[in-house]
Amino acid sequence: MPVIDVQSDTAALPLTITAEFAAPVDRVWDVYANPRQLEKVWGPPDYPATFVEHDFQPGGRASYYMTAPDGQKFGGWWQFDSIDPTSSFSFTDGFADDDLQPVDNMPVSTNHYTFTATDTGTRTVYQSTFASADDLQKVLDMGVIEGASGAINQIDALLAA
User: Fold this and answer.
1) Distance from C-alpha of 155 to C-alpha of 161, rounded to nearest angstrom
2) What is the pLDDT of residues 46-92, one digit of tens each?
3) Whole-angstrom Cα distance, residue 73 to residue 90?
4) How many domains does the chain contain in total?
5) Strand partners, 109
6) What are phi and psi for residue 131, nearest 5 degrees?
7) pLDDT tens, residue by residue, 108-126
8) The CATH number of the domain where 143 resides is what?
């Protein structure tokens, strides 16, 4: 399983997940740069994602929805802030309504994903920081650790294909 560590701190407000993959950095990076690949791993295993928009450049936007086993759709959006190809990217992440527009009363996080070569492949650190302890606690209560870990753990199968 790729996820090797999960840390959350409601005082300092970050949620950090660290994963290791037996693939080179550029291959792991491609998972996030290519929306068709990202759809195969974004979201919990039983909630496949569909990216409607994925403008992977600074100032670009992504919008997507995940489909639950019962057919219910859950939307999300990203606003890309910075991208350093194959090294890191930063974005703002939030929940979206049925029209994939931001939902104002749900938590928004700032995210920084880093990709580092190791002797055996790639170490990726996913860090999400929330505006308040209440916002972090809300997503923790929603199962973000289990959902994100399940999503990240799907990447190995995609990389092996």
Assistant:
1) 10
2) 899 999 999 999 999 999 999 999 999 999 999 999 999 999 999 99
3) 25
4) 1
5) 93, 130
6) -70, -25
7) 999 999 999 999 999 999 9
8) 3.30.530.20
Contact 32/113 with Cβ under 8 angstroms? Answer: yes
Q: What is the DSSP letter of 102?
A: B
d(C-alpha 76, C-alpha 107), whole Å: 11
Q: What residue has token string 């019962």? A: 70
Which structural domain range is residue 141 located in? 3-160
CA–CA distance, 92 with 122 (Å, rounded to integer): 24
- What is the distance between the alpha carbons of residues 49 and 105, in angstroms, rounded to a whole number? 22
Query: What is residue 121's predicted lDDT score, i.e. its pLDDT?
Result: 95
Residue 74 corresponds to which amino acid? F
Q: What are the C-alpha distances in Å from 118 to residues 19, 23, 124, 126?
A: 12, 10, 10, 16
Q: Is 72 helix (H, G, I), strand (E, B) or coil?
A: coil
Q: Which two tokens stand for residue 100?
A: 């994939």
Burial class of residue 107 in the structure, from the number of CB atoms within 10 Å of its CB (0-12 exposed, 13-18 middle, 19+ buried): buried
Task: Name the β-bridge partners of 21.
Answer: 122
Which tokens go with 67? 């489909």
